[in-house]
Design a protein that fits this description.
Length: 185
């Protein structure tokens, strides 16, 4: 800032330095914020998956099977979704098929083409897929949880066709869903 000749204000060079500093700080902060949001959404989905797993075990202790388990309907605020036709839950609680962060499939472990309301009810598996239309979550990991103790984060793409493939009871391997670049959670 020059004050000798009566000029008051900032030079172009000083303004460029300030703008450059702001750009550098923003380029550091934005990716960190995105990573923070991904981690917090993943932690919330993990927590809700564990709560649903607790509900499943509570159901089994009362009925001696997982068959017929119906999750809390508030996970699907879209009234066209029922647990009879779909095994999808939307997290966070109360979100719809367009506003969800994670979509969780609760499937019969013996026949992944069926939900627990119509399957054998001997085992279960949950797979959470991030909402890829969300710009922050499009690179988030998928979550896998089963009653057999499988828990992992995986980057492999798990399509509905992959999940609902009919597999004979004797050849089921939940850990196969955690192959590749996966980490325990």
């Amino acid at each position: 800032m020059r004050t000798q000749m009566g000029y008051k204000g900032f030079t172009l060079l000083e303004l460029m330095v300030v703008v450059l500093t702001i750009v550098i700080l923003a380029s550091i902060a934005v990716p960190q914020y995105s990573q923070y949001v991904r981690k917090s959404q993943r932690a919330a989905a993990q927590s809700e998956m564990l709560r649903v797993a607790g509900d499943l075990e509570s159901w089994r202790s009362k009925t001696l099977t997982y068959k017929g388990f119906t999750p809390d309907i508030s996970y699907a605020s879209d009234t066209s979704i029922t647990t009879e036709t779909s095994s999808s839950l939307y997290f966070p609680k109360g979100s719809s098929s367009t506003t969800y962060k994670y979509k969780v499939a609760v499937l019969d472990g013996a026949d992944r083409s069926k939900s627990l309301t119509t399957g054998t009810g001997q085992t279960w598996i949950m797979v959470a897929q991030p909402n890829t239309s969300n710009s922050i979550l499009n690179s988030a990991s998928r979550l896998v949880l089963s009653n057999r103790g499988v828990r992992c984060l995986t980057d492999s793409v798990l399509t509905d066709a992959t999940l609902k493939t009919n597999i004979a009871t004797s050849s089921i391997d939940d850990s196969a869903l955690c192959s590749g670049n996966s980490l325990p959670w």
